[in-house]
Model the fold of this input.
Amino acid sequence: SQQGEEDPQALSIQEGENATMNCSYKTSINNLQWYRQNSGRGLVHLILIRSNEREKHSGRLRVTLDTSKKSSSLLITASRAADTASYFCATARSSNTGKLIFGQGTTLQVKP
Amino acid sequence: DAGITQSPRYKITETGRQVTLMCHQTWSHSYMFWYRQDLGHGLRLIYYSAAADITDKGEVPDGYVVSRSKTENFPLTLESATRSQTSVYFCASKGGDTDTQYFGPGTRLTVL
Done:
């Protein structure tokens, strides 16, 4: 069963606009991660936020985590055509095993 | 080449045949994972391994067998392939001191 549910399933924006994707999960977590997948490729790690953190930044990426609501959001600012990809959240209940449970992903299209 | 590789990249087989998907990483990561990706399901964990000779089931292990005699290799075998195992398979690895997983490029398997 999927731990995370992502919203929206698909998002289409113009270059330069911001893109926001949301992820909800069901159980307590150790950390939550966001991955990007370009068409036909493997997943690439973007950012990790731990359960005791509320917000994290990496370049144009901003991730928030609300453990009381069991939700996270990924904001991509000033989007570019190269940001076109699918974005997945993944939760880890424990840091020991490394097991991740992935959401179904949000497909982002950035139009030039 | 450094990194994580999968072979073959594409495979077509018939129902009932045995198929082995290979995964090789050059980082000496202790953890390795096998996922399958299907439309509408995101990525689901099949098996994972914490070290050589240590493996454990994930969310969808039925019909699959793994082994890990060497740290760098983690083959996935479908003992008797079924059409429902048509999917894209991703291998991933991570070191013991990080929560980030590194993904291979994937193997697209079609079972006729």
Observations:
- The mean pLDDT of chain A is 93.
- The longest strand of chain A covers residues 43-50.
- Chain A touches chain B through 26 residues (CB under 8 Å).
- Residues 18 and 77 of chain A are 4 Å apart (CA to CA).
